[in-house]
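About this split. The held-out portion is used to measure sequence recovery: a designer receives only the structure tokens and must propose an amino acid at every position. Recovery is the fraction of positions where the proposal matches the reference. Here is one held-out target exactly as it appears in the evaluation file.
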């Protein structure tokens, strides 16, 4: 059978997804909204092969086993059952994202696997159905099917929970600076921490209650191309999400001392008149939302405390792409 290669870019949520009402189907309690980025992406090739005994998964050239392999096999089972085939597959992925460092690698990983896997199995899914399929691998992957600003409509069933593009071609001046503070695997996965926060944080009902207002307001701000308003809501959503981890039992935080240093620096630069805002995911790293026009000044400010190698500028990126095999950047 043919080998299919797909590329998916990661996305950073501006209004976060944090908590599932259905673990099996990955149905979230709330809508969320993200920006897909250009420089962080995953290339994945899939080939079904009747001669294999079981699925094989190579990530960045290394054979993956254990829990991560099982997660991928279960995902491939969804594709096999939809395509009505029984063959194992050979899967090769290259992550152009620091894996599990909080830069949402599962988003690009499962979006690329959904696209390459389904097409290699002979399925021709619509973008909506691809988004639904990606969702079954990891919630944030639901949004990586599209470029630019994307909303994940939570829905209330497998059929109604998928992403929709809000502004695919971002024609105004907004981008991010990723501050890489820690490259290591995160201590606690987003999956287990969000489940614990839903179960134990007394603030979780308030999180659900406020989410829709945040999504509605940020969509207006995006339509108005209002960087300051987008940034303010993103900060609010991120800090509220992290307040859920801190208020859970047991309490927990993804923040490290350097996370707080970065936040303080962004606040200082803002006090100097620069439009910059921070957001953090399930890890210590900080993403700064800003304009391309002011990026040189913001980079100069950040590099007074962080080495330049830790700072990556990312622009709005595209949705899912299919590549001929020779276009893989690692081959
Ligand atoms: C903080 O998508 O990694 O990045 O659905 O359990 O795989 P699972 O979780 P995941 O969680 C992402 C959480 C977040 C916020 C977001 O991307 O919306």
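Reference sequence for scoring:
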């Amino acid at each position: 059978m043919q080998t299919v290669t797909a590329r998916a870019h990661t996305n950073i949520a501006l209004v976060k997804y944090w908590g599932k009402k259905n673990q099996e189907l990955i149905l979230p309690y709330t809508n969320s909204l993200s920006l897909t980025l250009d420089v962080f992406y995953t290339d994945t090739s899939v080939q079904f092969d009747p001669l294999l005994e079981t699925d094989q998964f190579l990530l960045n050239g290394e054979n993956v086993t254990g829990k991560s392999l099982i997660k991928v096999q279960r995902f491939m089972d969804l594709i096999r059952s939809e395509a009505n085939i029984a063959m194992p597959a050979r899967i090769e992925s290259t992550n152009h994202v620091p894996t599990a460092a909080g830069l949402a690698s599962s988003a690009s990983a499962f979006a690329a696997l959904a696209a390459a896997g389904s097409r290699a199995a002979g399925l021709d899914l619509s973008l909506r159905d691809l988004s639904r399929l990606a969702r079954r691998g990891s919630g944030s992957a639901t949004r990586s099917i599209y470029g630019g600003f994307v909303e994940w409509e939570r829905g209330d069933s497998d059929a109604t929970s998928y992403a929709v593009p809000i502004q695919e071609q971002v024609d105004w001046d907004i981008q991010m600076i990723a501050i890489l503070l820690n490259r290591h695997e995160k201590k606690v996965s987003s999956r287990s921490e969000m489940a614990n926060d839903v179960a134990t944080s007394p603030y979780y009902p308030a999180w659900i209650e406020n989410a829709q207002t945040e999504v509605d307001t940020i969509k207006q701000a995006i339509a108005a191309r209002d960087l300051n308003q987008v940034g303010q809501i993103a900060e609010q959503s991120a800090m509220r999400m992290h307040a859920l981890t801190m208020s859970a039992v047991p309490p927990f935080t993804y923040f490290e001392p350097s996370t707080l240093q970065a936040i303080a620096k962004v606040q200082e630069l803002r006090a100097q008149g620069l439009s910059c805002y921070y957001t953090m995911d399930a890890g210590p790293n900080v993403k700064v939302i800003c304009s391309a026009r002011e990026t040189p000044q913001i980079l100069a400010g950040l590099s007074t405390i962080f080495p330049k190698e830790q700072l990556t500028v990312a622009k709005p990126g595209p949705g899912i792409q299919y590549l001929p095999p020779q276009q893989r950047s690692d081959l």
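Annotator remark: The mean pLDDT is 95.
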